[in-house]
Amino acid sequence: MTPAAITAELQELQKLLALEKAADLEYHRQKIQSLPLDQRVKEGYSWYGGITVTKSGYTIGNRAYVILERSLPHTPDQFRAGKTVSLFTKQPAVHKPEQSGIIQFTDRARMKIVLNSSDLPEWLGMGLIGVDLLFDDRTYREMEKALKYVIEARGNRLAELRDVILGRTQAQYREVNEFLRSEQLNDSQNAALRDVIGSYELTVVHGPPGTGKTTTLVQVVKQLLQAEATVLVTAPSNTAVDLLTERLAKEGLNVLRIGNLSRVDEEVLRQTLDYQIAHHPDSKQIKKLKVEAAELRRKAKQFKRKFGAEERQNRGQMFKEAGEISGWANQLEQRLLDNLIDGAQVITCTLVGAANSVLGNRTYRTVVIDEAAQALEPATWIPIIKGARVVLTGDPYQLPPTIKSHEARRGGLEVTLIEKALQRQAHTSLLRTQYRMHETIMNFSNQQFYDGQLLAAPQVAQQTLTKDFETPVVFIDTAGTDFQEQTQQAYQSRYNEGEFQILCEHLYALLEHCYTHEILPLPSIALISPYREQVMMMKKAVKEDERLADVPITINTIDGFQGQERDVVYISLVRSNAKTDIGFLKDYRRMNVAMTRARHKLVIVGDSATIGNDDFYAAFLEYCETHGTYRTAWEFMA
């Protein structure tokens, strides 16, 4: 590619990002801002009612924080770590009844919000507290800024990385002795490790399901630290970053987690910047100074401007003293921050978190980007700006990033940076051995997505349920049963009760087999579907079914189940109609995720008359007839 072509490509990406931002904002206005409060609470876009403030204080950067708890039934909601929110009160006649902030962590009952303010709201203890989800403009600003940097880069390291990653030039490698290896890795994983160590600009590590990508990354980072003081490790989601943080810390590395958390358990909390500052000997003095400054500001605000000259002078003096004390606290805090950040072997954060002000203008010899196939390209550039070389890892044949703008998707915003690198670079690393599933479960995806290059590790290749009465892959065909899909009108999501009943009959038979052969504990089981309404219906039915009361069953959408695995996985396809319309079953990457979650047994229930006209599903039906077990729903309807 020519320099002009690369610039044009990136400028087009700016336009697509603007389309996505506009669509996201419009979605927020329609779905959230237009709803009354009680409806926002019902649909999970607000917390209100039974909310109490259990703790408040001051975090790094002289920002106030609050921890909230809710006592009402914990219905599912849309709040996640890193989301922008508004903390509000419904108390009448209060000054500034709203304060924006960022969720630092949340679970079903608790939420910590770091406010965009150095002071806590005066109304915090007055009750009628709530939280609203806001439009996340900050993420878009950081992506826009990163794209601008990349486009304007001239004659520097970022320009060189841009030209390599986008294919204008090929990545260069120095030869690395093949004796450089980790005993914890297999041959293809060690080859990837050597590629990283020998690379000058870029390494692309393609990790299909179950191939030990995270294990490989941990060993890569350990090897990099033999020659580098600190490695920056990033991923698109807080969940992925937390997993990496935990795994790296278990290797005895000094890991510093920057940003927000998807989990609040002790194992991850100990690695966070806030925790390490709070448990540092200097933190008590810093906290004392911050509280003192906040109290002075509070007292100063009580002086009204209409008071006399002496009162106004006292007010000004209080603000001055508060500023001096805050300045002192900030100096002590910055020194402590610098010591912690510069002393860490590994910095972990999300892609957007790499722009966190606490990292300043620091740069790193190597930047690792995990799950790169789940990230928008503009977000992926954010950490790359801080690196001298890049490691991109992921699998473009699993779920892509979520995009709200149909126009932006059609324009190519869904194409990730790792996809471009895999297409444009002559040399990439493929992890070939998978350690999760029976080879029969693996092989359909292996043929469809990975050119048959994957091998099942010997310890899993023939793993099955004890005395299983079927093959590891089963398709149950509902064709001819008249189990038609139905549509939930409010959300336009689909469900199929008849199909689920057939699934349950097979599940009952499986459990009876386990009880008869004393297979205890029972295998772990997941019921997944592409459609949220089917998932909601399955959850309700399983909860009310006494026969399934003590069975370890996880029920989720395919998207929600990505990254997980179970001994037995059932997939309910839902679609059954005379038009043979399969909707977003057409996204074969989603099905690749679904079909590769099972260790011992995969059971798919669907209507062959609806899905069979599609080449992908026709190939799967043929695969089941040849290598699996093909059954009809009529067998379960006696």
Overall shape: it is globular
Number of strands: 24
Structural class, from secondary structure content? alpha/beta
C-alpha Rg, in Å? Answer: 27 Å
Q: Quote the beta fraction.
A: 15-25%
Are there runs of 5+ residues with pLDDT below 50, and where?
A: none
Describe the protein's architecture and organization.
The chain has 638 residues and is of the alpha/beta class. The chain has 22 helices and 24 strands. Strand 18 and strand 19 form a beta hairpin.
Write the layout of secondary structure elements.
Elements: H1 3-33, H2 37-42, E1 46-48, E2 51-59, E3 63-70, E4 84-89, E5 98-106, E6 110-115, E7 129-133, H3 137-152, H4 157-165, H5 187-198, E8 202-206, H6 213-224, E9 231-235, H7 238-250, E10 255-257, H8 266-269, H9 273-278, H10 283-301, H11 309-343, E11 346-350, E12 364-369, H12 377-384, E13 387-394, H13 406-411, H14 417-424, E14 429-430, E15 433-434, H15 439-449, E16 455-456, H16 458-461, E17 473-477, E18 486-488, E19 493-495, H17 497-516, E20 525-529, H18 532-544, E21 553-557, H19 558-561, E22 566-572, H20 588-595, E23 598-606, H21 608-611, H22 615-627, E24 629-632
Parallel strand pairs: 8-13, 8-14, 9-11, 9-12, 10-11, 12-13, 15-16, 17-23, 17-24, 20-21, 20-22, 22-23
Antiparallel strand pairs: 1-7, 2-3, 3-6, 4-5, 4-7, 5-6, 18-19
Helix pairs in contact: 1-3, 3-12, 5-6, 10-11
